[in-house]
Amino acid sequence: MSDAADPHAPIRAGIPEHGRVPKYFAVKTRLESVLDELGEGGLLPTERELAARFEVARETVRQALRELLIQGRVRRKGRGTVVAGPKLVQPLSTSSCTEGVRRQGRTPRRQLIALEQLDADPVLAGELRIGAGAPVWHMERVLLADDERVGLESTYLAVSRLPGLARDFAPDTSFYAFLREHLGVEPVSVDERIETVLATPREALLIGTPPALPMLLLHRSSRDANGEPLERVRSLYRGDRFSFTVHLDKKA
After folding, report:
1. Strand, helix or coil for residue 121
2. Rounded to two decimals, what is the model's pTM?
3. Which of 146, 142, 155 lies closest to 238 in space, CA to CA?
4. pLDDT of 108 higher than 70
5. What is the pLDDT of residues 191-212, one digit of tens each?
6. Which residues form the signal peptide (predicted)?
7. Homologous superfamily of 88-245
């Protein structure tokens, strides 16, 4: 059997046909074994110690660690690096991130950054079916799971739909739960678009990540049972801490 047909051949693990790999990739592969031995929360040796162990330059170790950081295998803690836990798996559905995090046994929280009224620009006004310049709520919150910052969310909705939002809503709780319990309304139709981006310096500071860390950006527009626009949401999730799933079922 040729290597190309062998599912266990090295090429399946990222080694090209010619068998030559960059030094950082070889170090990264060896580091993955170290991570498995240490377990979640385990503290990695310093770059200097790893460079001596693997007999490579510190920059080679640093590049390997950067890739592991982007993949979510490790995370920074103080001045050290520790083994990260599994990513949060968020299904793409009409439910909120709060409810998705709670289903995985984690404790979701929100930290309010801003709750303000803005004048709707023409694009936002068209999405919410209101007049250009009409007042909209803008609510910006940091997303947390077990006190770990994992994202940043901006919600826009017409003030006319919810004039008492600033008075009645506790911003550290689930917005969708508030809509259901206090207004008897919830999203029943949702459009979402996902793309990869880099956080701005401000966003990286709020989330607590390096600016070069890839992010997953979700644009969501939701409607109620009557088909009326409910909100527009821009959610930025850490690419090293989140993955998304969707269930597709082709009916006969």
Report:
1. coil
2. 0.69
3. 142
4. yes
5. 888 888 888 889 989 998 877 7
6. none
7. Chorismate lyase-like (3.40.1410.10)
